[in-house]
Specification:
2 copies of one chain form a homodimer. Chain A is an alpha+beta fold. In chain A, about 15% of the residues lie in helices and about 35% in strands. The first copy, chain A, has helices spanning about 10-15, 40-50; strands at about 20-25, 35-40, 55, 60-65, 75-80, 90-95, 110.
Chain lengths: ~110, ~110
């Protein structure tokens, strides 16, 4: 359990406060899209309060702070919700590689267009 | 029903071919993140074949082509899957506004950091 709580203002922006929200993580400097990770209301509240990239692991069912084990931390520079309040854009300063494979971004598997 | 089918190669890259995949749509030129929309395997196959931004509407339960009614079409420049094969980055040439509100991107609701 996290000890952080969302403000009434932020809760009011969300389409459904109990839904998992996909968070698009973008490098603030290069604008590269680094990864996609999910937030629940507790992870979002913790991220707002601490300024550290903070997510909800769907497989482990727990909050995780990016870089806690790898050292590849993220300093959150800005946050924005989309028009529907069900997707989040997270602009970060990324230390080291964003991907656990060691690649700079997680999106390193191209699909060829026809 | 779509008449498009994924190649065995692309199917092999997906974590689960029956899952909905969040698609991050990024402006190829400015690198702004424009919107997040979902693809199922049929929408992805149609997008690969046609090069037009093509998604699955979770509310209407149907494939939709971005701009079909608004004229604000997307020409897909490149596609990349993430390391887990369960998120997609879609780089596009966006005609007009990406957001149905008329804003350039859907991510126009800032959340203040503490």
């Amino acid at each position: 359990m996290s000890n952080y709580q969302l403000s009434a203002e932020v809760r009011g922006l969300l389409k459904d406060v109990d839904l998992l929200i996909p968070g698009i993580v973008q490098d603030a400097q290069t604008k590269d899209v680094l990864m996609l990770a999910y937030v629940n209301q507790e992870a979002l509240a913790q991220m707002i309060a601490t300024g550290a990239g903070t997510y909800w692991s769907r497989s482990r069912k727990e909050i995780w702070v990016k870089g806690a084990s790898s050292g590849h931390t993220q300093k959150v520079m800005s946050l924005a919700l989309d028009c529907d309040g069900d997707a989040l854009l997270i602009s970060v300063e990324q230390i080291g590689a964003a991907c656990h494979t060691g690649e700079k971004t997680c999106f390193h598997q191209p699909i060829k267009l026809a």
